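Journal club side-thread
Mid-discussion, someone asked how the predicted structure for our own chain would compare to the paper's figures. Pasting it here so we can look after the session.
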Amino acid sequence: MNEVVWGIHAGRTGDADALFLKQGCIAIGWDAMGDLSVLAADRDAFRQRYVQAYPEAKKGGIATVSGIPYRFLHEMKAGDLVVYPSKQDKQVHIGRVTGPYQYVADAPRGYPHRRSVQWLSHVPRLQFTQGALYEIGSALSLFQVKSYADEFRATVGGESAPALPVDQDHSVGLVTDDMEDTTRDFVLKRLAQELKGLPLEDFVVHLLQCMGYHARKTRVNEPSVDVIARKDHLGIEPPIIKVQVKSSPNTVTDKDVSALYGKLSHGEYGLFVTLGSYSPACRNFEQGKGNLRLIDGDELVDLVFAHYEQFDSRHKGLLLLRRIYVPQVLEAD
C-alpha cells in the first residue's frame, strides 16, 4: 500500500524553515487552540474550539481552517510522507513522519503543534513536473497530495525521472488550464455575490464604457431594457443598443430573450448579458437575428479580462486581479 503524501508550508515568509529542517519536525500554528490532544476526536469539537479561540474568524472558512489541526492530529500517521517546499533554499524536502502529535506549549515562533520527521530527500524544484509543483503550492498550510503523489514517492525511492524539457512536460497545460478556470470561477462568484440585481447593471455600464461605448442605465422603468448604449459622444446617432442584464446564474429562457427582442425598433440592436447560460432555443433564436447578441457568464469573464486595465479603482477593488504570465501550450502539428 502506498504511503499517504502530505504537503506542508512554513508560513508565508518561511519562518519555520530552520525549525523543520534543523530540529527534524513539522509544525503548525493555531497557538490559541491549546493542546489539541485533549479535544474529542471529531471535526465538530475542533471547529468549536477554533471558534472559541478565534472569534473574529470569517465564518465561510471555519470548516476548512479548523479541519487542518484535526487532520494534523488524527489523519496524519507515522509512516506517511511529507513534502515541504522551502521558500528559503528553493528545494523540495521530502521526509517520513516518525512520531505522534506533540504539543510544545512554550514553542518559539508560534508553532506549538508538532510531529517528528526524518528527512529523506532534498531535491531542487526544477526536478519536478510543473503539475507537481503546482499541487504543492496549495493555499492551505497542510493538505494531502493526491494527483502527483507518485512523483514524490518515486523521488524518495530514487526512481525519479530526469527533468523534462518544458515543452515535453504534459502537466504544463493542465496547470495553465487549472489556473485560468480558478480565476474564472473567482470572477463569476464575486459578481454573483456582490452585484445581485441592479448593481450588476452598473457594472455592465462601466464595462461597456471601458470598451468604448457611451452607456447609461435606463431612466424609466422599461421592462426588458436595463441599459442603453451608443458609440457617439452625444448619444443621438444610430445604432442604439438596448441591453438586458440578468444577475442570476440560472439558464435564460427564449421567453426572456424574445421579450428583449420585442423592444427593438428598426436599426436597433439587442444585447443580453447574464451570469448564467442560455437554453438551446435561445441560441437558435440568436443565430437567426443579425441584430441580437447573447453574452453568457463565460464570455462576460473574457470581456472582464480583456478590459480590466481600463476599470476604475472601484471596480478593480471589486475584482482584485493581478496580471501573471503562464506558459503557452502550443498545439502539436
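Post-session note: DSSP finds eleven helices and 14 strands in the chain.
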